[in-house]
Amino acid sequence: MRLTNLDMDALRSFVTGMDAGSFARAADRLGRSTSAVSAQLKKLEEQTGVALVRRLGRGLTLTDGGEALLSYARRLLELNDEAVSALRGVELEGWIRLGLQEDFGETVLPQVLGRFARAHPKVRIEGRIARNSELKDKIASGHLDLALAWDGGGAPATVERIAALPLCWLGAADGDPVWRRESGEPLPLAALEAPCLLRTIACEHLDRQSLAWRIAFVSPSLGGLWAATAAGLGIALRTPVGPPPSVRLLDPRSYGLPELPSLGLVLYRADKDIGPTAMHLAAIIKQALRETLRGEWLVQDTLA
User: Fold this and answer.
1) pLDDT for the residue 277
2) Sign of CA dihedral 188, 193, 197, 200
3) Where does the record place the HTH lysR-type domain (predicted)?
4) What's the Cα-to-Cα distance from 256 to each of 8, 141, 184, 237, rounded to whole Å?
């Protein structure tokens, strides 16, 4: 049996089209015509012998075969890009200082560190998991080169907008609800120590609806916040990224809670010209987020 070599350019167009939500947007990102991208998709279908997408209303959705190929395609492209980066950057040395919000410590950081270390084994990364205010301060003072943080305004450096994540009320996954509006009792909040951007947002939205609240539990870390929420000590406000199975998202209408806005996720850079190694690390961070976050949350232009 003769093995088929899948076309890497066609795979990249396929993955870009699914990430962008349409192959027309993929064509814009890749600098190609829509007809050229469509031809590449047809080529992949011929190579694999299965239909990869089907039309659903005005859009496209993956077939079972397309869903399977998408997973393999991401891995193939990742390995291809890692190999090229490693060969081109084999002489790169030095160190990079990276900061991340605690929410992304388990979901994004392992991928980022692993990929970067394989591509640039001579470059040392100094990583820091910290709160938003600390990350911004260290970017402003030059103690970090890159920082993935919430967009709280007052940007101290070059900013790249990555995503807009919905804010959510969270409660214990098991047991009775810790609070309902009709109870007449102040809403118990589980929050991080001040200053905390999300704590401020929670209090502001409760005040706007004239809902009484009290701080029921304060934690210096996200792990403590999850533990208190899971134990039913209070309701927390966070994004859907990273909560453990012991907590669940609460429907605002069912519980009489305020509807919430989205929160911007940004990549701060200490300097506009951070050099090729740091730029590659930034690209790996964005790729990891593309694979971790839902497509509708992403700011597409920055992840091209």
Assistant:
1) 79
2) positive
3) 6-63
4) 51, 43, 11, 14
Q: What is the 3-state secondary structure (H, E, C) of the chain?
A: CCCCCCCHHHHHHHHHHHHHCCHHHHHHHHCCCHHHHHHHHHHHHHHHCCCCEEEECCEEEECHHHHHHHHHHHHHHHHHHHHHHHHHCCCCCEEEEEEEEHHHCCCCHHHHHHHHHHHCCCEEEEEEEECHHHHHHHHHCCCCCEEEEECCCCCCCEEEEEEEEECEEEEECCCCCCCCHHHCCCEEEEEECCCCHHHHHHHHHHHHCCCCEEEEEEECCHHHHHHHHHCCCCEEEECCCCCCCCEEEECHHHHCCCCCCEEEEEEEECCCCCCHHHHHHHHHHHHHHHHHCCHHHECHHHHC
pLDDT tens-place string over residues 96-123 = 899 999 888 888 888 888 888 877 778 8
Output the pLDDT for position 78. Answer: 76
The residue that leads in pLDDT, 24 or 82, is: 24
Check if the beta carbon of residue 73 is closer than 8 Å to that of residue 18: no
Residue 301 confidence (pLDDT) above 50: no
- State the pTM of this model: 0.68
Domains of the chain: 8-88 (1.10.10.10), 94-163+263-297 (3.40.190.10), 168-260 (3.40.190.10)
Structure tokens at 134: 């600390």
- Spatial distance between the Cα atoms of 71 and 83, rounded to a whole number of angstroms: 19
